[in-house]
Amino acid sequence: MAAKAGRPGEGLESRVEGFNERAREAVKDERLRSAVAVHSKNTIRNRNAALSALPDAPELRERAYRIKQETMANLDRHLERMASAVEKRGGKVFFANDGEEAVRYIGELARRRGAKIITKSKSMATEEIELNRRLQEEYPELGLEIVETDLGEWIAQLAGEAPSHIVAPILHMSRHRAAEVLSEEAGHPLPPNVEDLVSFARERLRQKFLSADIGITGANFGVAETGTVVTATNEGNEGLVASVPSVHVAVMGIEKVVPRLEDLAVFLRLLARSATGQKMTVYTDFVSGPKGEDEPDGPEEFHLVLLDNGRSSLLGGEFEEALYCIRCGACLNVCPVYRQTGGHAYGSTYSGPIGAVITPLLKGDEEAKDLPHASSLCGACWEACPVGIPLHELLLRLRRRQAETGISGRAQRLAFDAFEFGMRRPGLYGIGAKAARGVQGPLLRDGVARSLPGPLKGWAESREIPHLAEKSFRELWREGGI
Ligand code: SF4
């Protein structure tokens, strides 16, 4: 069976708008919220244990941040070095300015090679550019069958759904639903137990691995000094995708480059611990080009597609730190918003706090205007981030940018203007505060207001607003009570 061409609403263009509406629906889904809660609780526990067993975890985090900072300052130099190392080993390198160029490069390669079946291993960059759908839509004459081979990604693909978590793509799906999806693929009912489902998937995917013409992988890191593409997985599918077909294409965001192998060691120690609480992922694959003349295994051709797609516009600016992300998913697991809504509400390849930062940066403020507000700014994401990205500050900067460019809603701007007007005039502020104290009575229950009228309604729905004191600080001060 051919893989489905697209996923409902797949792609940043069509789904990013409307976070608030999707989030409202998601919070009503008890099953989803409980699945996310269980996943988050387990992962956070494992992560904390794994990191506390690492005596130098804070220093590593600091080092990771510094390496990223230095890498971004000289990104062009590191990318050139990486490209020439890959070419020296017989690989081909293509710099893709955007998704369109990347799709065209891979589509033309598929045409040249007469490819029919493409196997893929999990890759956020290819999700970001909607590679599967676009290859099939833009090259219909090739009749490409594109198969995701990470188990969760494959089930999501068969179900016509998008992944909902950076690390756990079908976190949103119950075991019964997964069994339903695989039963449809099998053509007969499969029991909803993990062993049976995995063994069916293994048997079915093995045929795809063996018959694939091209294998497409992502890249967790690219090492400039050696030209090595590094991927970390738990299922081993990446190794088969990269080595069995005669052509291997690695699609790597340009920010994934690290200068030296010793830098890679820092990130590998942090990545699995932060993502799943493992010391290391089960498989860490290093690919440095096509197979050599004396090597029996490996692809005849190796292509590295270095994807920009808006990343370079962040270099040297106030949002550069968004490029330091190593896609571990730790910020999602601790985020109070993600934990209530799951990943689909974000409508973007990247969900959770990093998604709320990166999506407006890559797609524009207008389209993703709700996302910087999908945060309580509690800072838990920053604490969890193994690279120390100050996500809450980036979200605040995005909100400020929205206000400056007039993208924030008119009502919000008027409210803040009115607030500023009042704050600058102590007399007026005093009158307003007195009036608010006078009318708060009917809104209070057990000393807190659980609902507020008018435009403040939505804001108060998720908060308990403490009652205003009988007398203000200034009144008490004047009366000598302080
Ligand atoms: S922002 Fe930090 S915590 Fe979130 S996915 Fe990226 S590296 Fe992990």
Q: Explain this structure to me?
A:
With 482 residues, the chain is an alpha/beta fold. The chain is built from 22 helices and 13 strands. Helix 16 packs parallel to helix 18.
Briefly say what this structure is.
By secondary structure, the chain is α/β, with parallel strands linked by helices. Helices cover 48% and strands 11% of the residues.
Fold blueprint:
Layout: H1 12-15, H2 19-26, H3 30-52, H4 57-73, H5 75-88, E1 92-96, H6 99-112, E2 117-120, H7 124-128, H8 131-138, E3 145-148, H9 151-159, H10 175-186, H11 194-211, E4 214-217, E5 221-223, E6 228-233, H12 237-243, E7 247-253, E8 257-258, H13 261-275, E9 283-287, E10 301-307, H14 330-334, H15 338-341, H16 352-363, H17 380-384, H18 391-404, H19 410-423, H20 426-439, E11 444-445, E12 448-449, H21 457-461, E13 465-466, H22 473-478
Helix pairs in contact: 3-13, 4-13, 6-8, 10-11, 16-18
The structure holds iron/sulfur cluster.
Strand content bin: 5-15%
The biggest beta sheet is recorded as: 6 strands, parallel
**Low-pLDDT residue spans:** 1-14
Strand order of the largest sheet: 1-10-7-4-2-3
Helix/sheet category:
alpha/beta
Spatial separation of the terminal alpha carbons: 77 Å
Helical fraction equals 40-55%
Count of alpha and pi helical runs: 22
The averaged pLDDT comes out at 91
**Total E-strand runs:** 13
Estimate the global geometry from the Cα principal axes: globular
Radius of gyration: 25 Å
Give the distinct bound molecules. Answer: iron/sulfur cluster
